[in-house]
Write a structure and sequence with these properties.
The chain is of the alpha/beta class. Helices cover 37% and strands 16% of the residues. The strands form two sheets. Strands 1-7-6-5-2-3-4 form a seven-stranded mixed beta sheet, sandwiched between helices. Helix 7 (213-226) links the parallel strand 8 and strand 9 (230-233). Helix 6 (176-188) packs across helix 9 (263-272), helix 7 (213-226) crosses helix 8 (240-249) and helix 7 packs parallel to helix 13 (344-362). It is globular.
Length: 364
């Protein structure tokens, strides 16, 4: 696994920089690595570098000493030079003893090198970009990651330190202010708090991961006809019209929250829910990380890698020999037969059982 460098000790390292330039779900899945580092090195100060749109997920996290944020704001040439100079100067002032790039992209490698960290750990790339490998003092080539839960991928990067891993489950800390704003949003929607709240997150950046609008509506109508619950349909502002279609097709009171929350507020709202029904996208990771049970519909992607772990989480997928193909739809066509052929009748019994469980817990 370790292909460059020798095993290390955390003992003399005062400040650690974790570089996570992935998407929102990747940031959530990094939290077990943050927790493991702190458990094994309590005196070390951990900083996380991430893209600014995901920052609200880690704000106020008690194990993190600070955040460095990259943003995509449009700047003129001179402004961009000044921004990059200030950004890198801020990194170097921390005098990091260790930087760990959790992904295998180019930007993270450069930032790790320019941070000035004495020890720099990265993923080995054997695809012709060998110059990138030279920017690190230590290189790892984790084995068998296709058969691992994705939170382990970040934990794999701690291998040179021989750390003890106690818990691989992601965990997010929702702040008091985020909870207060979430309650205000739900009160504005006139949602009742005297019954379980079920969230449905139907859409993704990738259409090949989605179920059909008609099937979502049929599922909601069944749940609301059988169970006394409130249903929230969530999504981005760009998805609001499609969420509205689901709400219009629903025969019960269903609330459209698409585009009405910040990311931090969204995490707080999911924490107040008793269940999330969704697909392979970031909200399933957020829900699990705030302690909310999930039922997730999977298509081409692998539940082994991406599904939340534990008895409170359920996975539904079509029983086909090609599942999971790990492609962007059938033959990368952006169309997934495994989801197109997954019927509400296959989904409803599992959702029914889960809703019955959360109702029992809610009423205790």
């Amino acid at each position: 696994m370790l292909v460059k460098g020798k095993n290390l000790s955390l003992e003399d390292i005062k400040r650690i920089l974790l570089i996570q330039l992935g998407d929102i779900g990747d940031v959530v899945l990094t939290t077990p690595a943050i927790r493991t580092l702190k458990e094994n090195h309590p005196s070390g100060e951990i900083f996380v570098l991430l893209r600014s749109h995901a920052s609200q997920l880690l704000e106020g996290h008690p194990l993190i000493g600070g955040l460095f944020l990259l943003n995509k704001e449009k700047r003129g040439f001179a402004e961009e030079i000044a921004y990059q100079k200030d950004f890198l100067s801020g990194l170097r002032r921390k005098r990091f003893g260790l930087s760990i790039d959790l992904r295998a992209d180019t930007r993270g490698a450069f930032i790790s090198f320019l941070s000035g960290a004495r020890v720099r750990i990265g993923r080995y790339r054997g695809d012709g970009r060998l110059w990138r490998n030279r920017l690190f003092t230590h290189l790892l080539r984790p084995e068998n990651e296709l058969n691992q839960y994705s939170a382990m991928h970040s934990l794999n990067m701690l291998a040179p330190f021989d750390v003890k891993i106690k818990n691989i489950h992601p965990e997010l800390i929702v702040t008091y202010e985020q909870e207060r704003r979430a309650e205000d949003i739900l009160r504005k929607e006139q949602l009742s708090f005297d019954r379980p709240i079920v969230a449905l997150h139907p859409f993704s950046r990738w259409r090949y991961k989605e179920w059909s609008i008609k099937k979502y509506a049929k599922l909601i109508n069944h749940v609301c006809s059988r169970h006394k619950v409130s249903v929230l349909v969530t999504g981005s502002i760009e998805e609001r019209d499609r969420v509205s279609e689901i709400v219009r097709m629903s025969r019960s009171d269903v609330y459209n929250l698409a585009g009405k929350t910040s990311l931090g507020e969204f995490a707080a709202i999911l924490k107040k829910c008793s269940l999330l029904i969704g697909i392979d996208s970031a909200p399933m990771h957020i829900a699990a990380a705030v302690g909310t049970p999930t039922v997730i519909l999977f298509g081409p992607s692998s539940p082994v890698n991406w599904a939340p772990q534990g008895k409170h989480h359920s996975v539904i997928s079509k029983d086909l020999p090609c599942v999971p193909c790990r492609q962007k739809g059938c033959n990368n066509s952006e169309v997934s037969r495994c989801l197109d052929e997954l019927s509400p009748d296959e989904v409803i019994p599992i959702v029914d059982a889960k809703v019955f469980q959360i109702k029992t817990t809610f009423n205790q």
